[in-house]
Amino acid sequence: MNSKVRAYLRSLMWHNLPKADVLYKLVLGINLFAMIGEAKTALLLKAVEYRHDCVHRNGYDKDGNQLQVFSLEYVAEVGDVVHEIVEGVQKMLFRVDRIEDRTRDANSPTISIVRLEVGVSRPSNDSPNGPN
Which pairing describes strands 111-118 and 94-101: parallel, antiparallel, or unpaired? Predict the structure, then answer.
């Protein structure tokens, strides 16, 4: 069953953001669109539409108009939203607690112990790089 799931996930068109959002909700309990809000969701959905026009229509929309939206500011704004999603997912999946030993005197270095809790676990026999 594990290889079927892996094959399915690899075959997905991850730029289909509504489908990706549903999968994140079902599997990880993470609502991507709620994480970034309506305005940023709309921005990303439009960016995927522009991507489609670039890839499949050579930079023209379905009405034959050449896309003029790709300013440095626009690309940076979309990149910032994607970065916000990645950071949000990481924060929800990995929780790091830093515990410092403050029992030593002021001249001693502080000892930090870091505990990492992972919200989703993988079977230990499953390589992160896929099947051997």
Answer: antiparallel
Query: Could you tell me if residue 121 is inside a domain?
Result: no
CA atoms of 78 and 69, how far apart (whole Å): 12
Nearest CA among 81, 83, 87 for reference residue 36: 81
Give the residue numbers spanning the domain of 31. Answer: 2-94
What distance separates the 2 farthest-apart alpha carbons in the chain? 72
CA–CA distance from 4 to each of 24, 81, 130 (Å)?
18, 32, 12
Q: Computed over its alpha carbons, how large is the radius of gyration of the chain?
A: 21
The predicted-structure confidence for 53-104, as pLDDT tens digits, reads as follows 999 999 999 999 999 999 999 999 999 999 999 999 988 887 655 545 555 5
Residue 122 maps to a domain: no
Q: Is residue 52 part of a domain?
A: yes
Report the number of distinct structural domains present in the chain. Answer: 1
Residue 94 has what pLDDT?
A: 79
